[in-house]
Amino acid sequence: RSLSGEMTGIRDDDHTGPMAESARASKSDGAAQGIASGFARGQSWPMTLRLIRRNRSFRLLISGAAAANLGDGIAALALPWLATLISRDPFHIAAVAFATRLPWFLLALPVGVITDRADRQALMFRADLARVVLSFGIVALIVGAPALPLADGDGSATRLIWIIAALAFALGTAEVFRDNAAQTVLPMLVEARDLE
Prior knowledge:
Blueprint: H1 3-8, H2 18-27, H3 31-41, H4 45-54, H5 56-86, H6 90-117, H7 120-144, H8 155-189
Helix pairs in contact: 4-5, 5-6, 5-8, 6-8, 7-8
């Protein structure tokens, strides 16, 4: 293990360089698919539970992913619902829901390139930190807004909808960064024999 591996809890192979990186990549091809297909066959639950018990880094990744995905689900439901309290215009409500998913369409490939070149653990931390700050920003916006629901035709409703749509886009962007990094960090945390 390298010094950075000991400090971060992320497992390194003893070999470095382009050839070793290529060998690690070929060993871990389809890592997520291997785990997912094992779940589909119903054979991986005991193996996964053993892996969670014995691998602290994997346990932290799984718990962090569970919390992040729960937050994503709540935001996907809560933001359009909040939009319905602010405006009855279907375009406004759809704009908020669309803004949450638009970053996946626009940024998934470029963020994948960034993820391949960056420290994945730091990228995940920064994305999660950004999501917490943005979530508190949404809460502050709601607390500081006039009493909801707003009256139809209120000019502040349109302004508030577009602010929420911008915050939803920013939340979606942070989600793209975090999820891309989380998907690619798995082979660094788990032995090759545990990936299949």
